Amino acid sequence: MRKLLIGCDVIFKKMRTRCIVLLLIPFFSFSQKTISVNYKKWDLKSFPESKINIGGSEGYYYDNVSEPQMDLYLPKGDAVTGKAMIICPGGALKILSYFKEGVKLAEKLASNGITAIILKYRTYPRKGSLVKWTQSPQRDIDSAKIILPHSSKDALSAIEMIRNKAKKYKIDPNKIGLMGFSAGGAVTMEATYKATPKNQPNFIAPIYPWMDIVDKQNVPQNKPPAFISCANDDPLRLAAPSVQIYNDWISANAKAELHMFSEGGHGYGMNDLSIPVGKWSDLLVDWILSL
Question: Quick one: CATH architecture of 30-290?
Fold first, then answer.
């Protein structure tokens, strides 16, 4: 009987511990908030937005985004830095690689005290699924150039809105960054070039940016520090344009940090890779914290 009572006591303690852990989980999760982004309606035809589940490291995409919004990942506790980064996922301005180039990075930034905002910017409207819808490289560029002005305006609106609500979200209004992957990198650069004092980013991070769709422009007067990353073996040949951004920045006496990796291909994002490029996001966090 005594052994039975001891056994029951052990089981009870284990169950109590599990219950405490389960109760604490919500307090350790990141606070999330979705906000609609101000925008002017376009004259392009819109199609229903959809969420495409791919699974694996890719997670999911968003397709046919015509109403921009942003998801906030707010850090908690004493580690809050007051710094914020707006993230623009890639996807050729046709889709948004929201999980691999959005959610996974947002969670990492928030865990390091950096407020992360994933921007669901507008993409090129089209009928039919991505799998069935292919174009030539030039037509891809042409369609991307049509939508880029709208997408970059979404980024500028997001910066202005976050800056206006900085106190509410415990953000320093002078420490709001903008970054993006591939097409999101193009959105980042176009917005940076076109920004005005009310919506200019304080720092930027173009990651393997698709500069074919961005016209050559001058480094803005506020000279936001830049963090640039790409792989030499990027099949879209984005390494040289990435280096060009770095050269432009240092030629203008602006702060810039360039991380070129020998291998990594295109779209490595937040994939769990055992090669050096897999550490790029650690370098990004250290860079943001140093600003």
Answer: 3-Layer(aba) Sandwich (3.40)
